[in-house]
Amino acid sequence: MIDAKDKVSLGARADETPVHGDTALGKPVVLFLCDGKHGASLMAAAVMVNKASSFFEVHCAHTSSTMHTAQASKALIQFQLSTSGITPSPLAELRLTYVDYLVAMNPAAVQSGLPLPDYGKFVPWDVTEHSEAGLTAVLRTINQNINYFLSLYLFR
């Protein structure tokens, strides 16, 4: 049985009302944010949805006006991961006002000058440092980072 203390650690408050009105009941919201250049936030969202969608509400956004999704989708297909149901959003059009975890996929994602939603925890990554080796290497790094994220935040 989950007591009130456990509910708080999973993202829901003891009175079971959504946090800041944006989170699904009992599911912390994770926003993956990238600069749009490699589609890293789309890849991260697809991996996270595949691994932990029952525990997290997952969103992805990018700071540029467009995101290069074709190559990211190709890399995901190699690992039989789907982007179905995941819609990347430009940060300027993002409707979320609060996220429990804001994951910056690279430094450029937070250097755009665009306002970020309020967040509980900021998680900085730099997965695009591997982009010279190809998007498959980026995807592998994303997978490793998500495994680490889940071990820290989900199974503590």
What does this structure look like?
The structure is a single chain. 30% of the residues lie in helices and 18% in strands. The protein has 156 residues and is an alpha/beta fold. It has helices at 4-9, 40-52, 70-78, 135-153, and strands at 29-34, 57-62, 89-90, 98-104, 118-124. The chain has a 5-stranded parallel beta sheet. α2 runs parallel beside α3 (70-78) and α2 (40-52) packs across α4. α3 (70-78) links the parallel β2 and β3 (89-90).
List the helices and strands and how they pair.
Layout: H1 4-9, E1 29-34, H2 40-52, E2 57-62, H3 70-78, E3 89-90, E4 98-104, E5 118-124, H4 135-153
Parallel strand pairs: 1-2, 1-4, 2-3, 4-5
Helix pairs in contact: 2-3, 2-4
In short:
Helix content is 30%, strand content 18%.
Features:
156 residues, alpha/beta, 5 strands, 18% strand, globular, disordered N terminus
Q: What is the percent of helical residues?
A: 25-40%
What's the overall geometry?
Answer: globular
- pLDDT < 50 runs, ≥5 residues: 1-24
The profile of the biggest β sheet is: 5 strands, parallel
Order of helices and strands: HEHEHEEEH
| Beta-strand fraction estimate | 15-25%
Strand sequence of the main sheet, in spatial order? 3-2-1-4-5
> What is the β-strand count?
5
Mean of residue pLDDT values: 82
Q: How large is the count of helical segments?
A: 4
